[in-house]
Design brief:
17 helices, globular, five-stranded antiparallel sheet, 20 strands, 3 domains, disordered C terminus
């Protein structure tokens, strides 16, 4: 029998509760469920399927399931296939996405989280391109009440501010996705009871017993915390109240963004009027910079992650100084540019920016700043990588308009360039200055399309300071 922390039998989730749990999801169709094979996400998949069956009579479900196989242990493929079989039994389309390549020796959980969201985002972006969908895709996660409490405790140990202690929201914009958490008020014990009553098969993740992970140690301390009054429900209640206060502050940040004339430029950088920024309160300046840095921080394994509060405080203090001459944070350069505008550029770093292959009829998110797509009328894959300093010098020699546009080399070397073998085919971010850099055309239409993807993220990236 599954019990809550007080020893009482936990009740399974009944059909009569589904309408209340999932009502808000109706506004976000089509939905993608993130299902790993563990009890939480398997319950989510079965309960959402049952809700649709009861409420919508199976009409045009518009729900699919994705599973990310992190390839970190031998059983991960079997877990993904278990999800596939159960999704098929429920009549839900399912896709397995594999995290390929080398895995880091440290920070594995954080890197896996970034890879997971990146794979899902790119997969959904490809679907949207094929179907013509333009809205930010919605991803439904199975985070529950006990996850929320653990997050509060972990952030409390780090000295977090209101955003961090506000923990996870029922709806957030992150990683280029709308992330929905309908089970956030449901205790883990009720999900276990639900799985037993409905005979839902699931897999146990061995890492849940690994004391190297902070969450595991916190779970082991649950009984002691409950005796002190720090129950999951009490911690989640505090998180909800702090999140409410943080949302009110973020409305003031929205107003500061408007007053500062914040602009996202075609070349993938951000600028804003310095004077209104300097006259705002310290808290609003910290939060605005957090939004910008979080949106700009692509391709480093930390994208979508919160920005360190102590480092942000130091940056805002430095910006107050009349001697401020520039700074770097989160692989971004912060400097004062022309016409007294504060400019935030991507920094290429010692390792450079990522190189990717772009296939015909496909799209990719490059460096979390640009969405690039290649027409199916083009019959070769193209390599996407940043311009080098030598490439930039050669382009300026060839196209004098680039020199006159005043684009600096430190900006140019953060732009995506598309190559066919050793031949530079396009730098589409510069096409407004030099149309020839848009790349080839077929039947009068470009085969390469580009969009600054942080335009999707920046307005919604509230709660960026942890």
């Amino acid at each position: 029998m599954c019990k809550d922390p007080h020893g009482k039998a936990a009740a399974p989730i009944g059909d009569e509760e589904l309408a209340g749990l999932f009502h808000d999801l109706k506004s976000y169709f089509p939905l993608t469920l993130a299902v790993s094979g563990g009890v939480d996400s398997m319950c989510l998949m079965h309960l959402v399927s049952r809700w649709i069956e009861r409420q919508m009579h199976n009409a045009d479900r518009q729900v699919q399931v994705v599973t990310v196989d992190h390839a970190l242990r031998s059983g991960s493929t079997a877990e993904a296939r278990l999800v596939a079989r159960q999704a098929a039994a429920l009549g839900l389309p399912h896709k397995i996405l594999v995290w390929e390549g080398d895995k880091p020796a440290t920070g594995l959980q954080q890197a896996a989280r970034h890879a997971r969201y990146g794979l899902i985002r790119e997969y959904l972006a490809g679907q949207a391109r094929k179907t013509g969908g333009g809205d930010m895709p919605a991803l439904v996660s199975a985070h529950h009440l006990d996850d929320q409490a653990e997050t509060v405790l972990m952030r409390l140990a780090r000295g977090s501010g209101a955003d961090g202690l506000g923990a996870m929201g029922r709806k957030v914009h992150a990683h280029g996705l709308v992330i929905l958490r309908p089970l956030l008020e449901v205790p883990k014990a009720r999900l276990l009871a639900t799985a037993r009553e409905r005979d839902i098969a699931f897999m146990e993740d061995p890492s849940n017993a690994n004391r190297d992970f902070e969450r595991v140690r916190l779970r082991e301390a649950r009984n002691v915390l409950d005796e002190l009054g720090l129950s999951s429900r009490a911690l989640a209640l505090s998180a909800r109240r702090l999140a409410r206060a943080a949302r009110a502050i973020e409305l003031a940040v929205d107003d500061l963004i408007a007053r500062s004339d914040l602009k996202v430029h075609d070349c993938g950088y951000v600028s804003l009027q310095f004077a209104p920024f300097l006259h705002a309160s310290e808290e609003l300046r910290i939060r605005l910079m957090a939004r910008v840095l979080r949106a700009m921080n692509g391709g480093t394994g930390r994208s979508g992650a919160p920005v360190n509060l102590e480092k942000l405080e130091d940056l805002v203090t430095a910006l107050d100084s009349p001697d401020f001459s520039g700074a770097t944070l989160q692989r971004c350069q912060i400097l004062v540019g022309r016409q007294e505008r504060l400019v935030v550029l991507r920094e290429s770093g010692r390792d450079g920016l990522e190189a990717r292959l772009l296939q015909p009829a496909d799209s990719i998110i490059w460096d979390d700043r640009f969405c690039l797509s290649l027409s199916d009328h083009f019959d070769h894959a193209l390599e996407v990588k940043a311009l080098s300093g030598a490439d930039w010098i050669e382009l300026k020699r060839k196209y004098r308009d680039l020199e006159e546009a005043g684009i600096s080399q430190r900006l140019a070397v953060t732009l995506p360039a598309l190559w066919q073998e050793d031949r530079l085919l396009a730098v589409p971010a510069l096409a407004a200055i030099v149309p020839n850099l848009a790349g080839p055309q077929v039947h009068g239409r470009p085969v390469i399309n580009i969009k600054v993807s942080l335009l999707d993220d920046l307005p919604a990236l509230s709660g960026s300071v942890k």
